[in-house]
Amino acid sequence: MQIFKDKVIIITGASEGIGRALALALAPYGCKLVISARNLERLNSLAKELAELGHPPLVHVADVSDQVECTGLIQACIEAFGKLDILINNAGMTMWSRFDELEDLSVLSQIMQVNYLGPAYLTHAAIPYLKQTQGQIVAVASLTGMTGVPTRSGYAASKHAVIGFFDSLRIELSDDNVAVTVICPDFVVTQTHKRALDEQGKPLGATPMQESKIMTAEACAQMMLPVIAKRQRLLITSFRGRIGRFFKIIAPGLIDKIARRAIASGR
Ligand SMILES: NC(=O)c1ccc[n+]([C@@H]2O[C@H](COP(=O)([O-])OP(=O)(O)OC[C@H]3O[C@@H](n4cnc5c(N)ncnc54)[C@H](OP(=O)(O)O)[C@@H]3O)[C@@H](O)[C@H]2O)c1
To answer: Mind spelling out the 3-state secondary structure of the chain?
Structure first.
C-alpha cells in the first residue's frame, strides 16, 4: 500500500458512504486527497476528521452532473498539487421503483447524468494529467452493471454504461500506461438506499435493506485498496457476484431469480 504515498487522489462522492470510508482508509498511506461532493458541511466534517489524523485534504464542492463543475474540480486539484495520479469516480445515485410504475421519467435522465455522464466529464478533463503521471482511473460501478435487477432498471442501465465506457477506455489508454479499475460492489450499508428515488422521483427516506446482513462501507473500502494499489481491472465484492458472472452464461434464469430474491429480501 506504500504505492499511495504522495499520490494525488480525487474522490467524488466523498461526503457519504463508500467515498467517505475510502478517504479515511487511504489517508494513512500518505496520499494527498481531494474530496468532492455537493454538500460542503459534510465534506468539511470529513476534512476535519482527516486533519485531526494529520492528513488535511483539499475540499472542492462540485455537482458531477455539470460538466463545467467537473472541469473545475480537476483544475482545482492541478492548481493545488500540480498533478493528478488517481481519479476515483465514486459519486452516484439510485432508484427503487418498477419501471411500469414510474410516474416521473426524469429519474432516468438524472441517474444517467450523475452515474455515467459525470464520470465521463471528469475523466475527459483528467486524462491529459493522468497521461503525465501514468495514473489511474477508478470507476465505482455496481454488480447491477453486470446483470438486470428489478426496481433498478434506470440504475442498471447507467451502471452497464459505466462498465462499457471504462472497459473501452482501458483499451484506449493502455499505450499511455493509464490504468482503469472498475469496482462492482454488492449491497453496501450507505445512505444510497434511503436516498433512492421512488416512482414519483422522491427519496425513499427509509432503507429497504437488511443493514445488519450486508457489507459496511468500511469493509468495502478495505477491499478496494489492494485492488487499486495493484492497478487491477476489476473487483466484485461478493462471492455471489463473482460466481454469478459465470452462471449468467449457462443459467441466466437462475441469476434473474437471485436478483429478484435479493431485492425482495433486501440483502
Ligand atoms: N451502497 C450500495 O449498496 C452500492 C452498491 C453498488 C454500487 N454502489 C455505488 O457506490 C457509489 C457510492 O455510493 P454510496 O453507496 O456510498 O452512496 P451514498 O452514501 O448515497 O453516497 C453517494 C455520494 O455521492 C455524492 N453525490 C450524489 N450525487 C452527486 C452529484 N450530482 N454530484 C456530486 N456528488 C454527488 C453524495 O454527496 P452529496 O449528496 O453531498 O453530493 C455522496 O457523497 C455509487 O456510485 C453507487 O452507485 C453502491
So the answer is: CHHHCCCEEEEECCCCHHHHHHHHHHHHHCCEEEEEECCHHHHHHHHHHHHHCCCCCEEEECCCCCHHHHHHHHHHHHHHHCCCCEEEECCCCCECCCHHHCCCCHHHHHHHHHHHHHHHHHHHHHHHHHHHHCCEEEEECCHHHCCCCCCCHHHHHHHHHHHHHHHHHHHHHHHHCCEEEEEECCCEECCHHHHCECCCCCECCCCCCCHHHCEEHHHHHHHHHHHHHCCCCEEECCHHHHHHHHHHHHCHHHHHHHHHHHHHHCC
Residues contacting ligand 1 via CB (< 6 Å): 12-19, 37-39, 42, 63-65, 90-94, 114, 140, 142, 185, 187-188, 190-192, 195, 217
Tell me which of 59, 111, 166, 192 to substitute to probe ligand 1's pocket, judged by most ligand atoms within 8 Å of the beta carbon.
Answer: 192
Instruction: Indicate yes or no: pTM above 0.90.
Output: yes
Q: Whose CA is nearest to atom 42 of ligand 1?
A: 13
Q: What is the pLDDT of residues 43-97, one digit of tens each?
A: 999 999 999 999 999 999 999 999 999 999 999 999 999 999 999 999 999 999 9
